[in-house]
Amino acid sequence: MIVLGSTSEVAQAFVEKALQEGEKFEKIYLFTSSKETTERFARHIDVKFLQQSEVIEIDLMKEIDYNKFDHVSSNVLFCAVGYLGDGTEEGLYDNRNTERIININYSKLIPVMNYFAQKFESRRSGTIIGLSSVAGDRGRQSNFIYGSAKAAFTAYLSGLRNYLFEKKVHVLTIKPGFMATKMTEGLPLNPKLTATPKQAADCIYKAFKKQKNVAYVLPVWSIIMMIIRNIPEFIFKKLKL
Q1: Which residues are CB-neighbours of 13 under 8 A, at least 6 positions away?
Q2: Number of domains observed in the structure of the chain
Q3: Of 89 and 19, which is predicted with more confidence?
Q4: Which domain holds residue 72?
Q5: Looking at residue 210, what is its pLDDT?
Q6: Which residues contact 87 (CB under 8 A, 6 or more apart)?
Q7: Are 77 and 1 in contact (CB under 8 A)?
Q8: pTM of the entire structure?
Q9: pLDDT by residue (tens digit) across 13-25?
Q10: Nearest partner of 172 among 123, 209, 219, 125, judged by Cα
Q11: Where do the H-state alpha helices sit in 50-143?
Q12: N or C: lower Cβ tally within 10 Å for the chain?
């Protein structure tokens, strides 16, 4: 398995869920911008599951040497890369914040995704799982920079799924709602609409095994976002969402 964004609590929970369910991986490649943190997780799965892994440093904000990834081969790619950034008015007009949100969530991530997608295509097998967000379903004033990047990522995964279908590669789009993670720590989240990493991992694993195309982590979010998507624009633009 290839894991992009392996410091993510959801990514780590999914890895553990897959191993608990008896999935066999010759090696798990843990791509990370925080080597020390990821090495602790690598030691954890080695001790608990006797799972061999390799930690590979990657920084999307720097030039990437793809030659370092030539040896990486797998049938599952799990992408949990994400950066929420500063969603306040100050953050909105901070170009460095805006660029970082767009780069990490989309523009710098897609070439990496394409690099591995091509490997999957050449083998004509495998599953690519991408964590997008309900924020990408419709732009809202509270987080529309982040939401626009996730909307682009959702569209990318949809097109990739369409393109790779005849190549026997499946692409699964996951849309979490509120998540109790480090990224959302301190935010006033409704507990009834918030999933834990373990809940997310259970949902994603089920969707993976059923070869679903799109899955919301909590089913209630599919209803919420259907309502939000269908509010007429002349009403929607007046709402504070």
Answers
A1: 197, 198, 200, 201
A2: 1
A3: 19
A4: 2-237
A5: 97
A6: 142, 143, 145, 146
A7: yes
A8: 0.94
A9: 999 999 999 999 9
A10: 209
A11: 89-92, 95-102, 109-123
A12: C
